[in-house]
Amino acid sequence: MTREALDRILASEDQIVPSSGFAASVMDAVRREAATPPPIPFPWRRALPGFGLCVVALAALLVAGFMLRAPASVPAAPATASYSLAQMFAAARVAIEKADGAGWIALALLLTLASIFFSFRATGSRT
Amino acid sequence: MSAAEDQADVENVLAGDASAFEGIVRRWQGPIVNLAYRFCRDRTRAEDMAQDAFLRAYRALASWRREAAFSTWLFALATNLFRNDLRRVPAGTVPLDELPELADSRDADAGLEDEDRDRVVRGAVYALPAKYREAILLFYFHDMDVPAAARSLGLPEGTFKARLFRGREILRRKLARRGVAPSLQEEIP
């Protein structure tokens, strides 16, 4: 078989004729598409404050995580009942960190309330 | 096919007249359905794929940049869609090794019925790896016009020619094994 023969075979592929209703069927689909309202764009302007808050919270979380990576521990109490000054400072630091934890919980609650508030405002103003 | 008519219809569709798209469909339904048919070898599926291609073209009409012919853009869009569709659901083609043996091992050109030989050659094309098969299908679909076929596949001409060459090489070897005399020249168009 020569290359010309191959060309002849492959170039003479069967041609099919689209069925009579093909164009009408395509146009039906096109008209349906045209009648469909365009998708509602994402409300970036309304969402931006929420995203900003999330970014701030995430950054604060990272900073706090970095600072607390080596948590202070209360040294074991010596055999004697007397506490040194260093031990007292360490105990105070642990107490402060515990208070920080409460602060974070409060911040999380605040963010939750803010996000609820913004979502209600966003949906409420559209209706 | 009139490029001016295509351009006018596109402008009308973009201006909000969806019915102007009908002109495009009527002018290009034959080529697009046949292109799909070359990919899948199934008439019903070819029409479904072609309809999908027209719908995609309708949605993406604004992205047609006027420096390329509308037909080039449409063929490239359709080819890309058909290739993806075939990757998802391959056509029900028979692997080359499962094609029936050609009559016997006598002189192939003399002993074979033309119809059998054509069928085996086409079957061999469909058994090629996708990238070579697509190059060969598009090359013959575009009447052996390398630049047009390369544009449809979104490939540089050099890459397209290399795939065509490699596809023919594989075809030559496989057909030789199936009893079709392999005197295919290795020149590239």
Keywords:
heterodimer; A: 127 residues; mainly alpha; 2 domains; B: 189 residues; Rna Polymerase Sigma Factor, Chain: A; Arc Repressor Mutant, subunit A; 9 helices; 67% helix; 0% strand; disordered C terminus
Which SSEs are present, and which pair or pack?
The complex is a heterodimer of chains A (127) and B (189).
Chain A lengths: L2 H9 L10 H14 L8 H24 L17 H42 L1
Chain B lengths: L2 H12 L6 H20 L2 H17 L10 H19 L19 H4 L2 H13 L3 H12 L4 H8 L3 H22 L11
Helix pairs in contact in B: 1-2, 2-3, 2-4, 3-4, 4-8, 6-9, 7-8, 7-9, 8-9
Parts with pLDDT < 50 across at least 5 consecutive residues of chain B: 102-106, 182-189
Give the number of helices of chain A. Answer: 4
As for the number of domains of chain B, it is 2
- Write the H/E string of chain B, N to C: HHHHHHHHH
What low-confidence regions of chain A span 5 or more consecutive residues with pLDDT below 50?
none
Q: How many individual domains of chain A?
A: 2
Question: Beta-sheet strand percentage of chain A?
Answer: under 5%
Structural class of chain A: mainly alpha
Q: Portion of residues in helices of chain B? A: 55-70%
Let me know the number of strands of chain A.
Answer: 0
CATH class of the largest domain in chain B: Mainly Alpha
Mean pLDDT over the full residue set of chain A? 79
CATH architecture of the largest domain in chain B: Orthogonal Bundle
Strand-residue fraction of chain B?
Answer: under 5%
Main sheet properties of chain A: none
Please state the oligomeric state of the protein chains shown.
heterodimer
Which class of secondary structure composition applies to the elements of chain B?
mainly alpha
Q: Spell out the helices and strands of chain A N to C.
A: HHHH
Overall pLDDT of chain B: 84
